[in-house]
Amino acid sequence: MTTDLLTLSGVHTHIGAYHILHGVDLRVPRGQLTLLLGRNGAGKTTTLRTIMGLWRASAGRITLAGRDIGALDTPRIAGLGVAYVPENMGIFADLSVKENMLLAARSAQRLAQIDGDRLQWIFKLFPAVEKFWNHPAGKLSGGQKQMLAVARAIVEPRDLLIVDEPSKGLAPAIINNMIEAFGQLKASGVTILLVEQNFNFARRLGDTVAVMDNGRVVHAGAMKDLAEDEQLQRSLLGLAL
């Protein structure tokens, strides 16, 4: 039986005067790729930021491997093996690709201290990271920046990778490369939680799916079942995909 690495139970989040999450229940099975889908404004990004402690849940419980992390700050959550790639990617534009990677490798003070085998594995996943190793990160294309953002997140082993809209604004060829890379990451044993708008991306990668609307999870199940049911797609997302 698959165990859940991450669970949210009845999670509410307020941002100032605004009540954004209204009792979110979410399960992220260990070793699988879980998609979080929904219309714009449904609460997907707020859910990710609440998991990471960037916004504090006002009620409910968030557990990672059975440990309640709801009261932990972001650095401590990251220290438990969680990596987060925000929608804006968060790269340091004035630093080189190499310097961005070194900053993300918290246990390394010099390039030589980064696990060489792991770095070569990352280069195979994202060849652009190696190709532009000494280039300023701000000069990369959108797809190359996204590859760098994910590469930084996995420069050290992670138990859980959380990524917000990895395919947003990318050309189809780059999206296919990203799908292949995430497939390899999943095969390596990394548990992944993705917010995604591209349904083809979601259908090809996802094991499980949760659909949000108005700050709640309104559907959860196998990605395969949602992909094969156009009526359910229309009901949940407003159109057949």
From TrEMBL:
Keyword Electron transport found: no
One BP term from GO: L-amino acid transport
Keyword Transport appears in the UniProt entry: yes
A molecular-function term among this protein's GO annotations: ATP binding
Domain (ABC transporter) ranges: 6-239
CDD domains associated with the record: ABC_TM1139_LivF_branched
Alphabetical keyword list: Amino-acid transport, ATP-binding, Cell membrane, Membrane, Nucleotide-binding, Transport
Pfam families linked to this entry: ABC_tran
Gene3D superfamilies, per database record: P-loop containing nucleotide triphosphate hydrolases
InterPro entries found in the cross-reference section: AAA+_ATPase (IPR003593), ABC_transporter-like_ATP-bd (IPR003439), ABC_transporter-like_CS (IPR017871), BCAA_Transport_ATP-bd_LivF (IPR052156), P-loop_NTPase (IPR027417)
Family, similarity comment: Belongs to the ABC transporter superfamily.
Protein name: ABC transporter ATP-binding protein
Organism per entry: Ramlibacter aurantiacus
Source taxonomy: Bacteria, Pseudomonadati, Pseudomonadota, Betaproteobacteria, Burkholderiales
